């Protein structure tokens, strides 16, 4: 992956990061995990909802398996397997408590989007870890130019938030609202640091990228907390 531009990536501090939104959360989470592990950091990956169980050997069934992966310079994924679905749910609390103090970085996928590039959270979402200090919101730029019905998980709540119909074509202004509203991606962030990944930016022209930046910065988001990420990074 290209170097993550965010300050927290190289500050050497312990972080617990929850990822929310749509448009490539899982990909970003695993890329960050691999990059930190390559730097010698002990990285723990989990979900508070559901993720597919990895098939690359990074799943760790217990604390010993986690330690073995860390000794190999790899990240470790923990969770409770669901045999019927092939997915992982949140790990047992005792396992998380045994490991979270030892980890240098914890990454948690805190909601799902069913492959939609953007979303509005349900009443029960996101499930942020109480000890998390950073929320990383992800949105796919392939949402732009498509209707809310096509691009957004839970298009009707999104339409109500935006004051339009679910058939409305999503533009940069609307996506800005979904990313910054406390009914949208910023729900329950509170005092946590908030960062944004605009994914698949290679699908946008330079002027469109600049417009998204201008809109977000205009609402008080530090430009250094926005990652214009291209596919393949």
How would you characterize this protein structure?
This protein has helices spanning about 25-40, 65-70, 95-100, 150, 155-160, 170-180, 205-220; strands at about 15-20, 45, 50, 75, 80, 85-90, 105-110, 120, 135-140, 150-155, 195-200, 225-230. It has about 230 residues and is α/β, with parallel strands linked by helices. The strands form three sheets. Strands 4-2-7-1-9-11-12 form a seven-stranded parallel sheet. It has a three-stranded antiparallel sheet with strand order 3-6-5, with no helix packed on it. It is globular, with a radius of gyration of 17 Å. The model has no long low-confidence stretch (mean pLDDT about 95).
Topology at a glance:
Elements: E1 15-21, H1 25-38, E2 43-47, E3 51-52, H2 63-71, E4 76-77, E5 80-82, E6 87-89, H3 93-99, E7 105-109, E8 118-119, E9 134-140, H4 148-151, E10 152-153, H5 155-162, H6 172-180, E11 193-199, H7 206-218, E12 226-228
Parallel strand pairs: 1-7, 1-9, 2-4, 2-7, 8-10, 9-11, 11-12
Antiparallel strand pairs: 3-6, 5-6
Helix pairs in contact: 6-7
The number of helical runs is 7
The shape is: globular
* Topology order in helix (H) and strand (E) letters: EHEEHEEEHEEEHEHHEHE
Tell me the total number of β-strands: 12
Give unreliable regions as ranges: none
Radius of gyration: 17 Å
Q: Whole-Å distance between the termini?
A: 4 Å
Which range does the strand content fall in? 15-25%
Structural class, please?
A: alpha/beta
Strand order of the largest sheet: 4-2-7-1-9-11-12
Average pLDDT: 94
Largest sheet properties: 7 strands, parallel
